[in-house]
Design goal:
398 residues; alpha/beta; Nucleotidyltransferase, domain 5; 2 domains; five-stranded mixed β-sheet; 25% helix; globular; PI-PLC Y-box domain-containing protein; Tab2-like_C; Tab2-like_N; RNA binding; Tab2-like
């Protein structure tokens, strides 16, 4: 059974032995293995402690945290974390289903890093929502918690792009629109039940002022075209190995903190994925242009050197968040950034191909949304030059 929960223990697990990455020569029916029971989503309770509090908590203190006043705000950094190591934040600045004494919706700033070593929340009235307020709040977090201003801030609401971008750029921070804010998204889901629903101003059934976009998919940019694709699967142990290779070898892509997410899947469970092949696989997968050119220029093909010299936005710079099989349109959808959706590939719609796509989507759902995208030079290759571990989550309730 696959379960997904935040893991407070943060215990690192060993790297599994190598497993070859294999693919069929063309899209083909795959015997997916499904967990026997429904997935469970168990989120850990986040800290409501201040920076001055000890990181050691007794069971009594944990119980007290659950009963804290939901109107209180949070300012916390893990005492065991090096502040200088927190260089990327995840941020949400949006209204909540809560009314203040004026009968107006309360806004809230929620900030964390991907390891949850930094956690910060603050409520705001709706008449001070602007880039100046946000910029001042970012500086306050830095000063209050003793952490440097981040190099990057990820956010997932397109409607806040103007305010967030202006605040960040005035502070020399790179704003990144991305749905790869998984720690933040899961935290907001947890806060809905643990905090917002218990707030005295909570309005049941209230809809967010800033809904998430799901636009019609557009045509794929030419530089992202692959030549062939196939539905594939890897044992969970092999998926972990591919993620580990992102840190140990020069491979493009992005992983997930599987320990923090608390994903509990048997090592032999098959994780669904999509592999895309291209004779220019390295150029298709990467965007770290100058670093790669300086290190590997002698080994690059002429075609790869051309694409690097053009500085086109390849996969590695797109903040890939999910791949979806759209059986109605008989195509694969690639979701990147906040709300950009591309028609990644198409196929002839038949009962057989529809069943294949439905089976792939069902396997993804059975694994709690976990899936992957791999870029290879050819389908018979044992290695991939790009690997993205993806988690398809529903939007938060706020």
């Amino acid at each position: 059974m696959a379960t997904l929960s935040f893991n407070p223990s943060r215990i690192r697990t060993s790297i599994f032995n190598s497993s070859k990455f294999t693919s069929p020569s063309k899209p083909t029916r795959i015997p997916f293995i499904f967990p026997s029971t429904k997935n469970l989503l168990k989120l850990r309770h986040f800290r409501t402690s201040s920076v001055s509090e000890s990181s050691i908590s007794t069971q009594k203190e944990e119980d007290e945290v659950l009963e804290d006043d939901p109107t209180e705000e949070m300012s916390y950094i893990d005492p065991e974390t090096e502040p200088e190591g927190i260089s990327e934040w995840e941020l949400d600045f949006c209204s909540r289903p809560i009314l203040d004494i004026r009968g107006k919706k309360v806004w809230e700033l929620v900030v964390c890093d991907n390891s949850l070593s930094l956690q910060y929340t603050k409520y705001f009235p709706n008449n001070v929502i602007n880039s100046v307020t946000l910029k001042d709040a970012i500086v306050t977090i830095s000063n209050e918690l003793g952490v440097p201003l981040p190099e990057k801030i990820r956010y997932f609401r397109s409607q806040m792009q103007t305010i967030i971008t202006k605040a960040c750029k005035e502070l020399g921070i790179k704003p990144i629109p991305s749905k790869r804010c998984l720690s933040l998204l899961l935290w907001l889901e947890e806060r809905y039940e643990a905090v917002y629903m218990r707030h005295p101003g909570f309005q049941k059934g209230a809809k967010s002022l800033l809904t998430l976009d799901n636009p019609f998919p557009m045509e794929l940019p030419e530089n992202l075209f692959g030549e062939r694709w196939a539905f594939v699967q890897l044992p969970y142990s092999a998926v972990r190995e591919e993620v580990s290779s992102l840190d140990t070898t020069f491979i493009f892509g992005a992983g997930l903190d599987l320990d923090l997410l608390g994903i509990e899947i048997d090592d032999k469970t098959l994780i669904p994925g999509l592999t895309v092949t291209s004779s220019r696989a390295t150029a298709l997968a990467g965007t770290e242009l100058q670093t790669f050119m300086n290190t590997h220029s002698a080994s690059l093909t002429a075609d790869a050197q051309y694409y690097f010299n053009q500085e086109l936005p390849w996969m590695n710079g797109l903040e890939v968040s999910a791949v979806e099989a759209d059986t109605a349109r008989a195509c694969l959808i690639l979701s990147v950034g906040i709300s950009t959706r591309y028609v990644y590939a198409t196929y002839k719609k038949t009962p057989v191909t529809t069943n294949e796509a439905e089976a792939w989507e069902a396997a993804k759902k059975a694994c709690g949304g976990l899936h992957f995208l791999a870029i290879q030079e050819d389908l018979n290759s044992e290695d991939c030059v790009g690997f993205w571990l993806l988690l398809d989550l529903p939007p938060p309730p706020v």
